[in-house]
Design goal:
mainly alpha; two-stranded antiparallel sheet; 4 strands; 45% helix; globular
Length: 159
């Protein structure tokens, strides 16, 4: 997660969109487990399925939880102003595209995976475990902080 070093240093975390809007945060191993289940079960055919994710949290809440887990100062979180994003979009195509999907950053973006859980028996990794695993990717001396774990995507907080 691009903000972990910023949080560890006690610096302001700049996020895209409204930092207080609830969002679903999906743990990469949960994505993998869902893909395996869907790819091996004929009941998955013909429709979209949502990956089970912990209860929604805002970007501010997620970053505050991560800072706390790292023993860092309380997170200071601000949204990058949209005029700045628009100006950046003049030179950086990715920024232009982010502005084009602004609604995904300023409105609730919450998944309901009730059917996925009911049909396939999958459940989200608890939020506290996601936070611990994410922090472990940057804490020296942890097995999840090794290069192989990071390259495999283990313990990363997906958005």
């Amino acid at each position: 997660m691009r903000q972990l070093d910023t949080l560890r240093r006690g610096r302001r975390a700049w996020v895209i969109g409204d930092p207080d809007v609830p969002r679903s945060w999906t743990h990469v191993p949960d994505v993998a487990a869902t893909l395996v289940a869907l790819g091996t079960d004929d009941r998955s055919w013909g429709r979209a399925w949502h990956v089970p994710s912990p209860a929604p949290r805002s970007q501010r809440q997620a970053l505050t939880d991560l800072a706390r887990a790292m023993g860092a100062p309380p997170a200071r979180v601000s949204g990058v102003p949209w005029p700045v994003m628009r100006a950046a979009g003049l030179a950086v195509p990715l920024m232009r595209e982010i502005v084009a999907i602004r609604h995904q950053w300023d409105q609730e973006f919450v998944l309901d995976a009730t059917e996925t859980t009911a049909v396939f028996g999958l459940a989200a990794t608890p939020w506290d475990d996601v936070v611990r695993a994410t922090v472990a990717t940057v804490q020296p001396g942890t097995s999840a902080g090794s290069a192989s774990s990071v390259e495999a995507g283990n313990g990363r907080l997906g958005q």
